[in-house]
Design a protein that fits this description.
Oligomer: single chain
Shape: flat
Distance between the termini: 62 Å
Strand content: 15-25%
Number of helices: 5
Radius of gyration: 20 Å
Mean pLDDT: 85
Structural class: alpha+beta
Helix content: 40-55%
Strand order of the largest sheet: 1-2-3
Number of strands: 3
């Protein structure tokens, strides 16, 4: 085999792994959106009357779409809060665009974080196994 017969291995990136850039941009977005929700007044009763926790921001590899996972305090009015946040996502995007250095601001899509329910279900299953 000569040196010209070398075939490079092709690495296929796993869709579950995120680049450092995605992680950094996601954390920065989480911080900025949290501050906007805390400091700004939105004339919406579900946003103003609920404490909203942003648990995670998943951003696409091209940095054009962001899924923001939220949970209202106590899990109350989940669907109403998500609908309200998705309605004002354009305003939120405009408010944070001056604070982040990106060529294009990602489209913000708010979703309910079901990881708390999933963790509780797993814990219940493990407790039942112990019995």
């Amino acid at each position: 085999m000569s040196e010209f017969d070398f075939k490079p291995k092709i690495k296929i990136k796993d869709s579950s792994t995120k680049s450092q850039r995605q992680l950094k941009v996601g954390e920065e977005l989480r911080y900025l959106i949290s501050n906007v929700l805390l400091k700004e007044t939105f004339y919406d009763e579900y946003i103003n009357n609920n404490n909203i926790t942003i648990t995670e921001v998943n951003i696409s590899p091209d940095l054009k779409n962001a899924k923001i996972f939220i949970m209202p305090l106590g899990g109350k009015n989940q669907s109403e809060v998500v609908d309200s946040l998705n309605k004002v996502s354009g305003r939120i995007k405009k408010l944070i665009s001056t604070s982040i250095n990106l060529r294009q601001m990602p489209k913000l899509n708010f979703k309910i974080d079901n990881s708390f329910e999933n963790a509780q279900n797993i814990e219940n299953i493990l407790k039942n196994i112990k019995k």
